[in-house]
Amino acid sequence: MERGFTMTKTAYNTAELVTVMSARALEDGKLVFGGAGMPLISCILAQKTHAPKLTILFEGGVIGPHIEPGRLPPSTNEQRCARKANMLLSITDVLLLQQRGYVDYGFLGGAQIDQYGNLNSSFIGDPDNPKVRLPGTGGANPIASLASKILVAMHHERKRFVEKVDFITAPGYLQGGDTREKAGLTEGGVYQVITHLGIFGFDKITRRMRLQALHPGASVEDVKERTGFEMLIPDQLSCTDPPTEEELRILRELDPEQRYTSPKE
Amino acid sequence: MAKSYRELREIIDKKDRGLREKVMSLEEAVGMIKDGDHVAAGGCHYSKTPMATVWEMIRQKKKALIYSRSITSTEGDLLLVAGVTKHVVTSWFSPGVTWGVSRVMRHYMQEGLAVFEEWSHMSLGLRYRAGAMGIPFMPTRDMLGSDLFPRVTIKEMDCPYTGDKLALVPALNPDVAILHTQRCDPYGNVQNDGLPFMDQDIALAANKVIITTERIISNDQVRRAPDRTDIPFFCVDAVVEVPYGCLPHECYGEYEPDFHHMDHYVKIMMGKGPDGVKEYLDQYVYGPATWNDYLQMLGFKHILQATVNGKGVYND
């Protein structure tokens, strides 16, 4: 537990904080691609609080399921994901809904993120001689290329927030400026990065990552210390409201064993 | 080497496409796969995995296969360690999020013992679809700008109508498709329940199709609900009845994964790496005389639990 995380009566851990803050970023009436684990919990939490008309899509080929508390699917490609859905369709077709423009939010994580919001889930080290071969893109690349707004939820660590990712698995703003548009990715882009320290956006011109709001108890120094590149810090900073009792109660109903929301440090 | 359109047409032309029975044993069906073939598996991750077919491919000591699948789970580890493939074409490769990154995949890829050809999930799907459509490529707006792009065979073009920049992914026509389904008639009319994954495109793209099915149903039963048929009989070359043919993975509406066995496997695989998987293969793949003997080893209690969970998909 980090200092200052006790403003709500119930104490909460860093993963729960990120989950709640991510849920709040999702607007009602929109469509979101939910990944397995924490992103999915955020989506359901949003549905059960401020966004009852939020529709969840799964890469496995699912539109609008109802996921049972305590029976969260460990993959987005299996039958628990399909529970009480509106429609099941092929993987290719559900991913193509994004290309058509139907999908508002994509929800991603990764082993590394850089100052332009590029994500790496493929290689650590030199891709031709990697230190670690990671599982790969899955749907992350098409989601990052085609959903209207990308949300990235990650634990804030210096080794994850790097100057340049070892490999661009899922494109953010590439090399900054208009490089994303020039590569043919004319739509979408990273909208917010949500960590256990704060919420981050991107400068409209340079496309560099910029601190937007700090979570209760976190400081600009914490952010700088845990970021491996120069974070843009605006003069005026807002602070997020801590998770409410209600948000934490629903969250713990969804993931009673803390399989996906166990403390990260 | 990708086949020309003429070659692909000739293969279909020579295929006996009459309404004929194709029911055979697992051994006979897998015998249709030749060393060096590109084998595409249906399902995704630990769902609808044609596990019995993979199991028999290992027992028949197939060599130098190219293996493709939308997302590859534990079956990919088994194929690598058994020496069946050194080339996996997929979008994501590990048992599942909660089980961590496959130590076997890491070993083979980090040591340069095998190739993990990484495509985006959508682009791989579009490659099968282009193959199913009989066209040489499909334009897409993903993969652009990323580092996935230069590592695989892919070209860019400006759209001749709009000028939009597009990535062109090449068609994939597998030599053999291996698919599992809930129901299929003796002629090969496949009726899937639940998540369709990429199975239909893979079947239409492939030159040969091997179907394993939970149950063989009559052609009359198919004709009572022709709207439920996903793969037409003339695509299919072999029909094999293999109840619980995906275990320890799941089959929609029939059984969830045998999570007990998945945990058991992952413990061995993550604990001892490829050596552990060698022991696993000896015990669970080379050891049992038949697929049913393998099921016996998983245990009635666990299969029953997986079945109860699997059928729960229809509960309110």
Query: Which descriptor suits the 3D outline of chain B?
Result: globular
CATH architecture of the largest domain in chain B: 3-Layer(aba) Sandwich
**Radius of gyration of chain A from the CA trace?**
18 Å
Trace the largest sheet of chain A across and list its strands. 4-3-2-1-5-10-11-12-13-14
Helices of chain B, by number, come to: 11
Name the structural class of chain A.
Answer: alpha/beta
Radius of gyration of chain B: 19 Å
Largest sheet of chain A: 10 strands, mixed
In CATH terms, the superfamily of the largest domain in chain B is Glutaconate Coenzyme A-transferase
Shape of chain A: globular
Query: Biggest sheet of chain B, in brief?
Result: 8 strands, mixed
Counting DSSP E segments of at least 2 residues, the number of strands of chain A comes to: 14
Number of H/I helices of chain A: 7
Rounded to the nearest angstrom, the distance between the terminal CA atoms of chain B is: 49 Å
Count of β-strands of chain B: 11
Major protein interface? A-B, 54 and 62 residues
Q: What is the second-level CATH architecture of chain A?
A: 3-Layer(aba) Sandwich
User: Quick check: average pLDDT of chain A?
Assistant: 93
Question: What is the share of helical residues of chain B?
Answer: 25-40%
Helix percentage range of chain A: 10-25%
